[in-house]
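Recall that a protein's primary structure is simply its ordered list of amino acids. Everything else, from secondary elements to tertiary packing, is in principle encoded there. The following example makes that idea concrete.
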Amino acid sequence: MRSQPNKITRQRGVGLTPTGFKKLNQAKLEQESTQGLRRYTLEHLSEHTGLTPNTLSKIFSSSSPVDRRTLLYCFSAFNLSLDQEDYFYFQSQKEPSL
């Protein structure tokens, strides 16, 4: 498949910045405290966010890219807004937009 010069490329795959990680982790800690939990396990987080434990592991470690929409779900589960300074695009993840 040849690349067409008129196609616009969009970046896919994001990770948490230190700011985003701090924001999400602080909200998680506050909920753990409010609910009297020692700490959320990936299974608890999965039930709370609706995301798989594998995806949550990727989010909290920023080791692998996730879809921006996935971060939106995760942040909204903690009543947070996802701001531009909360995430970054992985450099090697570019795909032509349709």
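Helices lie at 18-34, 42-49, 53-61, 68-77. The longest helix spans residues 18-34.
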